[in-house]
């Protein structure tokens, strides 16, 4: 019997001997691929190679890739093979070997290396892939063991690389089957287990669906490690392999409930089926959660972070079904680390990150889970008393908002009680909440604004007075913590676990509850997000378009990261921080450090903004006034008043003037003076801004402005200013976006790379790329004209053929047919074409475009036997899940279900007959 670790190593060693480069598994966060939340297959890291976007550094590769898939989340534990996370063993060829070698080596590995009997093996092929059949037979597969399957075809998307695939199945025995007479490969039961899928990428599919052979054919294979372990260890399910049993055994030990395998005798009074399911779910989900955390995925309310949080909370909930009420995720992490750490070193190197999130998430959800379940049980009892079987969707949303219950978890708990959730009402509540949140944001109450609105915070800040800013001259400073405030996590007010001792040996238990409002406290512990006021601060608070600083605080054994800043009306600066380590207390003396790289990048962009303002006034006129700005580390945005489009020549003059000031390396001087004195010296003020008697004046060469932001010491430190866009944003308002310093260099390099890539595509030099592109466009337009002419001829021929299919319905000629039409306009032209060829009658045409149904109906002449095109098309559209209408002679509609278009068109005769007889 081979262990899971041995099977992983054997596979990689086999293909290394076949000339493959062993490539380490990639992160679960797909790189540069916004189409995927998570890495779902072994080929995902190689997509740029398969799609031809990047040249691979090797022609053959073999990997063991971590993957996460959640579409079948609710099947985990119920079947022998479903899991949320798994390892995919794969061998890949990028224009090197192809079908024959891939098949030969797969068969060699399965039969000779693993030693699986050929009598237990089956393979599937695409019916048209005669090559694959021949190669399998040549490799040694019995002819009656090669099964054709229409679904054996893989594609990267609607267009692009694609090709047939072949799968290897293992017969686990009649006793594992469903017992039906027709049980065979492809049956939903657990008898035939797919262990390996070989994809032969040999075609490219275009927008019309046509397949063209690829110049370089590729191989992509995937073998699930859990599945092959089932076969080689001769067990019933993936949960009985050594890849899962340590986790199962740990859950059993924590819960005190024995794990009873299917078919074994259970002498306890508890339900073995329920316990077995719960243990499998907990084991699977814990392995998945730890794996996701080890790759730096953080729990959150959206995206991949939401997937992580949902799986983690599901694990905690199923653990409660086993009677586990204490924190246990840390124990499960230790098991994952012990058995997977050798292969995945990030499990150890990211230990602190993993454990912090496990502890915090489990603590927060454990605190609310019981309340949420009790609330659901109370609602279920009320529903049963009322004889209802559907849970209100708005109530489900309130439970999510209050207790952090994902809707999927609520639906799952209710399904166990035989109840449904009104998902339409839930989605409606979500949308209303989104709209309200956007409105609050527009009113200046964005995310986290309520954190600064607590009465205790405002009162204490008023007592402390303004916070002096010392960040113009210093990026590190020693200050005192004057006040600390806490707000409960998720609104529940639960502090982090573990007892805390305060000065004077005052001891607070770790599970102390705090009110949900922002309240004054004397300390903040590890994992807490707190608000604090310092005696002084070097951190710049967002103002005048310049973003807030970032940085850290260090005090003895306490470390905290600055998350955000806000200046209150009285000038007090409130720092929102996250304590990463130790305990931060009121009265502590702390060292605060501004992130130097971020500050310098922001400073360069801020000084560049001043020079651009001066350049715009110099080139366009003194009427130009600043109307807003945003100064960030990676770019700047400057809005200004101007009543005409800025020409390319004017924009170039602006850029030249600004960079001339950079090259002049002017000294930047900062002076505090009276507003009157500043005005006398021609300082530019922000239009509409209210200034005090004393102002801060910043001068750099010919530019002098009133400004409270941070700036470079000399203009030469800016490096370079590059305008990247300009356009109108409203009546009399324009916007420029620009880069400075290192960001300019990165931008220029990006443009150079893009020019080289375009030149390579056009097979020319970078110097001749424009000329060659112009030639290519002329050729393309010529081809497009030819294609349009050809398409028109084809469409005319198609319509002529359709006229021959007219049927008689109670004396009215009727034609209903599916046609090819890229959009609604093309479909209407087709309908007009057919109608013109009929003396009288009804025409209904349908087409599928972009996964939606388009329908057109025409009646000739208008009012023929009281028939109405709008009424006819409406009934046809309903069948496809859509709606529509129109005039008596012409009408159109849309549908959502392309699969029912044929059915809808078949019903046209009956619909017309109904109107005639109605």
Q: How would you portray this structure in words?
A:
The chain is of the alpha+beta class. Helices cover 38% and strands 24% of the residues. The protein has 24 helices and 35 strands. The strands form eight sheets. Strands 1, 2, 3, 4, 5, 6, 7, 8 and 9 form a nine-stranded mixed sheet that branches. It has a six-stranded antiparallel β-barrel with strand order 12-17-20-19-18-22. The protein has a six-stranded mixed sheet with strand order 30-31-32-33-35-34, sandwiched between helices. A hairpin with a 5-residue loop joins strand 8 and strand 9. The longest helix is centred in the middle third of the chain and has 36 residues. The radius of gyration is 34 Å and the shape is globular. It starts with a helix and ends with a helix. The relative contact order is 0.04. About 5% of the residues have low confidence.
Briefly characterize the structure.
By secondary structure, the chain is an alpha+beta fold. It contains 24 helices and 35 strands.
Layout of SSEs?
Blueprint: H1 4-17, E1 21-22, H2 47-50, E2 60-68, E3 85-94, H3 99-113, E4 121-125, H4 130-139, E5 146-148, E6 153-155, E7 160-171, E8 192-205, E9 211-224, H5 225-232, H6 245-255, H7 272-294, H8 303-321, H9 329-340, H10 346-349, H11 351-386, E10 390-391, H12 393-403, H13 407-415, E11 420-421, H14 423-442, H15 455-464, E12 476-486, E13 500-502, E14 506-508, E15 519-521, E16 523-525, E17 529-534, E18 551-555, E19 558-567, E20 573-581, E21 583-585, E22 589-594, H16 596-620, E23 626-631, E24 636-641, H17 648-664, E25 668-674, H18 675-680, E26 694-700, E27 703-706, E28 721-730, E29 733-740, H19 742-762, H20 769-803, E30 807-809, E31 812-818, H21 824-836, E32 841-849, E33 852-860, H22 869-879, E34 883-886, E35 890-895, H23 901-906, H24 908-917
Helix pairs in contact: 3-4, 6-7, 6-9, 7-8, 7-9, 8-11, 12-14, 16-17, 19-20
């Amino acid at each position: 019997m081979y262990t899971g670790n041995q099977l992983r190593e054997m596979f990689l060693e086999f293909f290394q001997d076949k000339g493959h480069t062993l490539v380490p598994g990639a992160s679960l966060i797909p790189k540069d691929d916004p189409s995927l939340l998570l890495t779902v297959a072994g080929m995902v890291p190689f997509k740029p190679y398969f799609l031809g976007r990047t040249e691979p550094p090797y022609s053959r590769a073999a990997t063991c890739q971590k993957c996460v898939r959640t579409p079948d989340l609710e099947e985990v534990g119920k079947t022998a093979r479903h899991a949320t996370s798994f390892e995919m063993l794969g061998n890949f060829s990028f224009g090197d070997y192809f079908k024959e070698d891939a098949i030969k080596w797969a068969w060699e590995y399965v039969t000779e290396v693993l030693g699986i009997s050929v009598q237990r093996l089956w393979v599937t092929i695409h019916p048209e892939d005669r090559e694959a059949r021949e190669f399998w037979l040549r490799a040694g597969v019995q002819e009656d063991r090669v099964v054709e399957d229409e679904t054996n075809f893989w594609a990267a998307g609607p267009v692009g690389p694609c090709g047939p695939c072949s799968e290897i199945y293992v017969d686990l025995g009649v006793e594992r089957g469903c017992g039906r007479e027709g049980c065979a490969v492809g049956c939903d039961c657990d008898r035939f287990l797919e262990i390996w899928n070989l994809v032969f990428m040999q075609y490219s599919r275009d927008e019309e669906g046509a397949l063209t052979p690829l110049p370089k054919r590729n191989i992509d294979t995937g073998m699930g490690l859990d599945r092959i372990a089932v076969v080689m260890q001769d067990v019933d399910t993936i949960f009985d392999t050594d890849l899962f049993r340590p986790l199962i055994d740990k859950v059993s030990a924590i819960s005190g409930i024995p794990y009873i395998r299917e078919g074994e005798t259970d002498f306890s009074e508890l339900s073995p089926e329920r316990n077995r399911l719960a243990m499998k779910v907990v084991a699977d989900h814990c392995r998945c959660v730890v794996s996701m955390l080890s790759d730096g995925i953080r729990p959150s309310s959206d995206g991949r972070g939401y997937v992580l949080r949902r799986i983690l909370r599901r694990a905690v909930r199923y653990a409660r079904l086993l009677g586990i009420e204490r924190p246990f995720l840390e124990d499960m992490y230790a098991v994952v680390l012990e058995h997977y750490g050798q292969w995945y070193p990030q499990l150890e190197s990211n230990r602190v990150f993993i454990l912090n999130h496990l502890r915090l998430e489990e603590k927060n959800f454990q605190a609310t889970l019981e309340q949420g379940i009790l609330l659901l049980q109370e609602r279920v009892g009320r529903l049963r008393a009322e004889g209802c079987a559907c849970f209100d969707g708005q109530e489900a949303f309130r439970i999510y908002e209050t207790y952090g219950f994902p809707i999927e978890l609520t639906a799952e708990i209710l399904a166990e009680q035989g109840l449904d959730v009104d998902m339409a009402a839930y989605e409606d509540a979500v949308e209303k909440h989104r709209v309200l949140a956007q409105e609050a944001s527009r009113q200046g109450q964005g995310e986290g604004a309520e954190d600064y609105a607590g009465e205790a915070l405002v009162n204490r800040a008023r007592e402390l007075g303004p916070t002096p800013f010392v960040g113009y001259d210093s990026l590190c400073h020693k200050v005192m913590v004057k006040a600390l405030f806490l707000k409960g996590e998720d609104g529940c007010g639960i502090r982090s676990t573990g007892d805390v001792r305060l000065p004077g040996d005052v001891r607070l238990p770790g599970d102390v509850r705090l009110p949900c409002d922002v309240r004054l406290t004397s300390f903040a512990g590890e994992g807490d997000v707190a608000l604090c006021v310092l005696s002084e601060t070097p951190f710049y608070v967002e103002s005048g378009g310049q973003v807030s600083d970032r940085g850290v605080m260090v005090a003895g054994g306490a470390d905290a990261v600055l998350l955000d800043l806000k200046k209150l009306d009285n000038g007090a600066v409130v720092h929102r921080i996250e304590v990463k380590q130790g305990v931060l207390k009121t009265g502590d003396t702390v060292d605060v450090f501004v992130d130097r790289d971020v500050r310098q990048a922001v400073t360069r962009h801020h000084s560049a903004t001043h020079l651009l303002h001066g350049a715009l006034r110099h080139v366009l006129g003194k009427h130009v006034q600043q109307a807003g700005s945003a100064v960030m580390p990676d770019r700047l945005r400057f809005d200004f008043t101007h009543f005409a489009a800025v020409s390319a020549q004017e924009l170039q003059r602006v850029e030249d003037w600004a960079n001339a000031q950079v090259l002049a390396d002017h000294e930047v001087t900062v002076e505090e003076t009276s507003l009157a004195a500043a005005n006398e010296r021609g300082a530019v003020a922000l239009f509409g801004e209210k200034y005090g008697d004393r102002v801060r004046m910043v001068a750099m060469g010919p530019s002098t402005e009133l400004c409270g932001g941070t700036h470079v010491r000399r203009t030469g430190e800016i490096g370079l200013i590059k305008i990247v866009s300009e356009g109108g944003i409203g009546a009399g308002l324009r916007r420029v976006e620009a880069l400075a310093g290192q960001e300019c260099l990165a931008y220029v390099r990006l443009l150079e790379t893009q020019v080289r890539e375009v030149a390579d595509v056009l097979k020319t030099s970078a110097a001749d790329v424009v000329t060659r592109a112009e030639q290519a466009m002329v050729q393309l337009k010529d081809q497009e004209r030819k294609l349009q002419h050809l398409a028109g001829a084809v469409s005319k021929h198609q319509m002529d053929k359709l006229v021959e299919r007219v049927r008689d319905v109670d004396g009215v000629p009727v034609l209903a047919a599916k046609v090819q039409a890229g959009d609604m306009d093309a479909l209407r032209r087709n309908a007009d074409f057919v109608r013109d060829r009929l003396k009288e009658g009804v025409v209904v045409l349908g087409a599928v475009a972009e996964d939606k149904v388009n329908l057109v109906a025409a009646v000739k002449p208008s009012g023929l036997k009281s028939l109405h095109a709008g009424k006819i098309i409406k009934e046809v559209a309903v069948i496809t899940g859509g709606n529509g209408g129109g005039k008596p002679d012409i009408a159109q509609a849309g549908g959502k279900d392309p699969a029912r278009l044929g059915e809808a068109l078949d019903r046209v005769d009956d619909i017309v007959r109904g109107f005639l007889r109605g």
